[in-house]
């Protein structure tokens, strides 16, 4: 193995420590950052993610609430709850865990969250601000990836960046952030004709498809920086990413592991976004 391992867990710990320090400064001015997470239904993975988010909030000194709603919650009731949270001054960030049960319109739910409390950065006005170069909240996972690249001192200006996966949550905002940092960006999707031809050009390769092993070592340019956003379980029940780690690590210059790579960074950046929402509140008259 030749690649340097990018330790997302260590960087996330450092960021969470910095957040906790800034929380103390806010508390001295009688503000405690508050995040409310809304979880609808019984998806087991979502329950684990939400519990980890709540634990991280509490460790950083936030006020943390998790509202667990049954899977048959009506859209009217969910939207009414979000309106109520929009009005609540002790709530600085609102996060509705996705995916939602099929009878709920995800787009409508996200658009109901006040844009200045949308710490996921999924609201169309936050997506538009990101696209036009004036981001308010950057979506947590791509934001975490940018922090990892920054801490590894990866030169993005003029670099060839290839993003595999074009979701609203990761791929599209990831492409926007890399573009804003001066990279030449290629955004691949499930219809991309020759994926390997694209990935082999990448100085920086970000993979976010949810398909284990979609990228293998022979698809990677020697020395490239490889960021694996996937969190999957293999046939033995072990966590694995979208990149075949062993073959990729033999070629790449640096690579993120799964677990311990991007995952912890997503939570750290959720704390940063919520903290900044609370800090902005202080600046309002
Ligand atoms: N489900 C998977 N990832 C995310 C995320 O970053 N935010 C929300 N709200 N739901 C998710």
Automatic annotation (TrEMBL):
The lineage of its organism: Bacteria, Pseudomonadati, Pseudomonadota, Betaproteobacteria, Burkholderiales. This is Bifunctional protein FolD. Residues 139-281 form the Tetrahydrofolate dehydrogenase/cyclohydrolase NAD(P)-binding domain. One of its GO terms (molecular function) is methylenetetrahydrofolate dehydrogenase (NADP+) activity. Its EC number is 1.5.1.5, 3.5.4.9. It comes from Alcaligenes endophyticus. Catalyzes the oxidation of 5,10-methylenetetrahydrofolate to 5,10-methenyltetrahydrofolate and then the hydrolysis of 5,10-methenyltetrahydrofolate to 10-formyltetrahydrofolate. Belongs to the tetrahydrofolate dehydrogenase/cyclohydrolase family. It catalyses: (6R)-5,10-methenyltetrahydrofolate + H2O = (6R)-10-formyltetrahydrofolate + H(+); (6R)-5,10-methylene-5,6,7,8-tetrahydrofolate + NADP(+) = (6R)-5,10-methenyltetrahydrofolate + NADPH. NADP(+) binds at residues 165-167, 231. The gene is folD. Homodimer. InterPro entries: Aminoacid_DH-like_N_sf (IPR046346), NAD(P)-bd_dom_sf (IPR036291), THF_DH/CycHdrlase (IPR000672), THF_DH/CycHdrlase_cat_dom (IPR020630), THF_DH/CycHdrlase_CS (IPR020867), THF_DH/CycHdrlase_NAD-bd_dom (IPR020631).
């Amino acid at each position: 193995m030749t690649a340097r391992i990018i330790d997302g867990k260590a960087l996330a710990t450092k960021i969470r420590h910095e957040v906790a320090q800034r929380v103390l400064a806010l508390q001295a001015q009688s503000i405690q950052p508050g995040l409310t997470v809304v979880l609808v239904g019984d998806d087991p993975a979502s329950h684990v993610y939400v519990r980890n988010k709540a634990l991280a909030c509490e460790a950083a000194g936030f006020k943390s609430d998790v509202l667990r709603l049954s899977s048959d919650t009506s859209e009217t009731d969910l939207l009414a709850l979000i309106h109520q949270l929009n009005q609540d001054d002790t709530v600085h960030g609102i996060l509705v865990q996705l995916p939602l049960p099929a009878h709920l319109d995800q787009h409508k739910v996200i658009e109901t969250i006040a844009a200045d409390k949308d710490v996921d950065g999924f609201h169309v006005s936050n997506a538009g601000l990101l696209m036009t170069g004036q981001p308010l909240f950057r979506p947590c996972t791509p934001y975490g990836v940018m922090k990892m690249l920054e801490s590894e001192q990866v030169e993005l200006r003029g670099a060839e960046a290839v993003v595999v996966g074009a979701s609203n949550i990761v791929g599209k905002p990831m492409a926007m952030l890399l573009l804003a940092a001066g990279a030449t960006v290629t955004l691949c999707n499930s219809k991309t004709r020759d994926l390997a031809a694209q990935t082999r050009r990448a100085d920086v390769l970000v993979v976010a498809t949810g398909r284990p092993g979609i990228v293998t070592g022979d698809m990677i340019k020697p020395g490239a920086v490889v960021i694996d956003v996937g969190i999957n379980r293999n046939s033995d029940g072990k966590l694995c990413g979208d990149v075949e780690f062993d073959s990729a690590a033999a070629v790449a210059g640096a690579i993120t592991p799964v677990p311990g790579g991007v995952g912890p960074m997503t939570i750290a950046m959720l704390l940063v976004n919520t903290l900044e929402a609370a800090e902005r509140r202080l600046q309002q008259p």
